[in-house]
Amino acid sequence: MWEMEKELLQPLKPEIIRMYYRQGYRLVGKHLHSAVKICYWTKESLRSGRACYKELWYPPVQSHRCMQMTPYIGCNCHCLHCWRVHSGDREGLTWREFPLDLKEFDEPSEIIDELLRKRKELLSGWKGNEKVDKKKFEEALKPTMMTMSLTGEPTLYPWISELIEAAEKRGMITFLVTNGTIPEALESMRKLPYQLYVSIIAPDKDTYIRLARPLIKDAWERLNKTLGVLPSLNTRKVLRFTVIKGFNTANIEGYAKMANVSKPDFIEVKAYEWVGQSRHRLPKEAMPYMEDIERFASKLAELIGYDIKGRYEPSGAILLA
């Protein structure tokens, strides 16, 4: 199928498109800047009944009815802990990730409609699986949630509000996960997502530059501006602190300051997972144990006056509220 799509207007080389397809992505739209993939926890929900922690902590999430996607496959950071392949990670595999070489973008409604079609195609093989409940499979074909977190930075897509509106018209709530480097996008959104995540991997500028490897000069300052904007946004807000053992755990007071400025409804303290391309950038020892996450979360909770409200060991995650 990628043979047909590579002829369309798009910024990616055929070998990059092949890589995405091999990894389970399906690119959508005329310009191929959006993508969909079946989340691990959607598969787990179908085959074993295990739910993602988001289903346990954030009603009305249902893991098997979550559509994981991105409207913008490019990113303005090259984070060390990211499991995705970045341009230059593999010999001979380079492309322009930021900004994408595009003169125009696909319309939100067109993106959503094609995402839904591609997701159905990806799920079709599960119908014959004896372990999958038939009713649950049929439900999975009709997602009730769209999570913008698959790859890239979603707020780089210029019509993010319209995309959220298009999803809601099709009966889906929306979760948006951002690295926080585009505060003006959040400030100007006419329609906010049902839940907004800001993903943070460092408590200070030096650590941030070393781990996030931003492609823009003022990324740290932009992230902090986003934190200052968060209290004014009328939606459910979450900070996600990704813990990389031995790399970003020395300054918990710095994380506490970020939480006090942004006043999120929830904080997730989550373990870095040694998976995907990150295995070539970080040692296996950088993946914390659950007890490491417990210690970090307990000290953070004490500093900011939040309580521990949930633990989910399969994902190495702890919820503060």
Summary of the model, kept short:
The chain is of the alpha/beta class. The chain has helices spanning 2-5, 14-22, 40-48, 53-57, 108-123, 134-140, 160-169, 183-187, 205-212, 219-229, 252-262, 290-304; strands at residues 26-28, 34-37, 66-70, 145-148, 173-178, 195-200, 236-243, 266-271, 308-312, 317-320.
* Major sheet details: 10 strands, mixed
What is the assigned CATH homologous superfamily?
Aldolase class I
Summed up, the helix count is 12
Report the mean per-residue pLDDT as an integer. 94
At the first level of CATH, the class is Alpha Beta
Strand count? 10
Number of domains: 1
Share of helix among residues?
A: 25-40%
- Order of strands in the sheet with the most strands? 1-2-3-4-5-6-7-8-10-9
- Extract low-pLDDT stretches: 1-9
Strand content: 15-25%
Description of the structure:
The chain is α/β, with parallel strands linked by helices and 321 residues long. It has one domain: TIM Barrel (Alpha-Beta Barrel). 34% of the residues lie in helices and 16% in strands. It has twelve helices and ten strands. Strands 1-2-3-4-5-6-7-8-10-9 form a ten-stranded mixed sheet, sandwiched between helices. Helix 5 packs across helix 7. The protein starts with a helix and ends with a strand. Residues 1-9 have low confidence and may be disordered.
Annotation keywords:
disordered N terminus; 12 helices; 10 strands; alpha/beta; 321 residues; TIM Barrel; 10-stranded mixed β-sheet; globular; 34% helix
